[in-house]
Amino acid sequence: MLLKLIGILIVAVVVAVLTGFNLDNRCDVWIFHNFENVPVFYTILASFIAGVIITVFVQAFNSSSSSSRDEEYKSKKPGKEKKDKHEKKEEDVFSK
Predict the structure, then answer these.
(1) How far apart are CA 92 and CA 86, in angstroms?
(2) Please, what is the Cα angle at 64 between 62 and 65, to 5 degrees?
(3) Which of 48, 47, 29 is nearest to 38 (CA)?
(4) Cα torsion for 54, 57, 59, 64, to the nearest 10°?
(5) CB contact set of 4 (below 8 Å; sequence gap of 6+)
(6) Helix residue spans in the chain (DSSP H)
(7) Do residues 41 and 27 touch, judged by C-beta distance below 8 A?
(8) d(CA 1, CA 4)
């Protein structure tokens, strides 16, 4: 547990140092308008946040449709047919 905490802190420090060194790097971004001299860090941060938001929405809408498929699958109970066939065979053997 302590090793994981130390590892996370080391990764956070490395990310912070690399971020600090790269704050001066700038680029031009076009999102329906040309934004000039935008720091690369802001571009990466905005892309990450947009990805998280889109993932949350996709999972939210996907889970509602998958739960209905799960209920449909559970109601069919695969394997039940096999059990019924075996029970019928056993009944036939014992009835003779």
Answers:
(1) 10
(2) 70
(3) 29
(4) -160
(5) none
(6) 2-21, 40-76, 80-95
(7) no
(8) 5
User: Six-digit token pair at 68?
Assistant: 């209905």
C-alpha to C-alpha distance for 35 and 30, rounded to whole angstroms: 6
Q: What is the largest CA-CA distance in the chain?
A: 89
Contact 26, 39 (CB under 8 A): yes
**pLDDT tens digit sequence for 30-89:** 889 898 998 888 888 899 999 999 999 998 888 665 556 666 666 665 555 555 555 556
- Give the predicted TM-score (pTM) of the model: 0.51
Rounded Cα–Cα distance for residues 81 and 34 (Å) = 63
Structure token digits, residue 87: 């029970």
Given pLDDT bands bounded at 50, 70 and 90, which one contains residue 7? very high
DSSP state of 31: S
